[in-house]
Every structure is written in structure tokens, then in C-alpha cells.
Amino acid sequence: MNIVKSVLFSPEVIAQRVKELGAEITSDYKDKEVLFLGILKGAFLFMSDLCRYVDVKMEFDFMEVSSYSGGTYSTGQVRILKDIDTNIEDKNILIVEDIVDNGLTLDYLVNYIKVRQPRSLKICALLDKRAHRKVLLKIDYIGFDCPDEFVLGYGLDYGEFYRNLPFIGVLNEEFISYPKNVL
Ligand code: PRP
Predict the structure, then answer these.
(1) Percent of the chain at pLDDT above 90?
(2) Residues with beta carbon inside 6 Å of ligand 1?
(3) Active-site residue, from 61, 101, 107, 157
(4) In angstroms, what is the span from residue 90 Cα to ligand 1's centroid?
(5) For 69-96, what is the mean pLDDT?
(6) Phi, psi angle pair for 51, to nearest 5°
(7) pLDDT tens digit sequence for 84-101
(8) How far away, in angstroms, is 2 Cα from ligand 1 center?
(9) What is the biggest distance separating any 2 CA atoms in the chain, rounded to whole angstroms?
(10) Which ligand 1 atom is nearest residue 105's CA?
(11) Best residue among 37, 63, 105, 106 to mutate for probing ligand 1, ranked by most atoms within 8 Å of CB
């Protein structure tokens, strides 16, 4: 039995879209400096690929957050595991996320960052999964619309594993009830 039911976005499709996003970001930030703020852990692969297609002067920082979850979905009660190292006041910030689901994590992050008075704040998300969105969010750059499925690979995990899959796939739900040691 395979952990992946079907491949949603192949490595080639992802690479092409990441390249397009990079070109768009390059054009929008022309003659500006930008700080890529990656949200760990899921965004690490996307961000490292994306930045190589962005031809502007940039710096990097990371936040790691964890959402208190009572079940499958986050609750919006976000705990910061790693905070920003940089003073972001008066900087152009681009948040880089792997997936936006109900949106509560990003809503929290946007408010958290806005208080620190950046010059501008935009959001780039590889996957926009809108089926369970609970807050209104403006996502400036979207890689792909994501169906209402549990997806994994290319940074996204299932139980902290499978982030290294080179594609984004749909979880085979038969695995959900399997004990962890047989995955
Ligand atoms: C994922 C994703 C977002 C959040 C989105 O992170 O990277 O940060 O969930 O969910 P929401 O829109 O429903 O709030 P996760 O908590 O799985 O951590 P990870 O990136 O370390 O895998």
C-alpha cells in the first residue's frame, strides 16, 4: 500500500509554477529590498526553490509556529516556537507559507507582524486550500488552488514524515488508522 493516493502536482509542474511566481515577485519588488519570512517547517523547500527565481536584493528570516489543535484543524491559538531575529520595522516583508487552510495561523501572523510596523507586508502561499477558510485573507501570490484533501510532500508532512517527497500528493486515507511504525 502506498502512502500517496494520487499525485496532485508533479515536480515538473511545481518547478514551472515556482519559476512563474519568482518572475512575478521579481517584477513587483523591482528596485526594492525584500525580506522573505519563511514559516517553518512546511515552507522550507518552497522558499528555497522560490528565492532562486527572485532577482532582487533580499534577506531571510524564519518563524516557526505551532497551532493548538483539538483535531484535524488548527484552532488559531498560535504558539511561537521560533520568533523573527530581525528588526522588521520599515522593511518589505513577504511571508512564505506552504499551505493556507482555515487561515487562522496566517491571520495571527499578519497581526503579529503588522504591529512591528513593516513598510509593506505581502503573502505568498504555495497552496490555497479554501474549503475550510474561517477568516478573510488577501494572499498576494498563490501557487495552486488546493482541493479539500490531506496533502503531503514538497515540505508538507503527515505525522512529521514525507516532507521530502518531490511532488505534492493526496494522502491515502487507509493509512490514517495504521499504527505509525508501519508507515
Ligand atoms: C501548516 C501550514 C500553516 C498552517 C496552516 O503548518 O504551514 O502554517 O498549517 O493552517 P491553517 O490555515 O488552518 O491555520 P503546520 O501546523 O502543519 O506545521 P508545519 O509547517 O511545521 O508542518
Answers:
(1) 86
(2) 39-42, 67, 73-74, 97-106, 157
(3) 101
(4) 27
(5) 85
(6) -60, -25
(7) 999 999 999 999 999 999
(8) 24
(9) 52
(10) 14
(11) 105
| Matching residue, cell 515552507 | 43
User: Binning pLDDT at 50, 70 and 90, where does residue 72 land?
Assistant: low
Task: List, as one string, the DSSP characters of 58-103.
Answer: EEEEEEEEEEEESSSSEEEEEEEEE---S--TT-EEEEEEEEESSS
What CA–CA distance (Å, rounded) separates 139 from 168? Answer: 20
Q: What is the DSSP letter of 173?
A: G
Q: Would you state the cell numbers that stand for residue 168, as one nine-digit string? A: 505534492
C-alpha cell read off for 131: 474549503
Q: Tell me whether residue 28 is one of the annotated catalytic residues.
A: no
* Residue 1: pLDDT band with limits 50, 70, 90: confident
| Angle, in degrees to the nearest 10, between helices 44-51 and 11-28 | 60
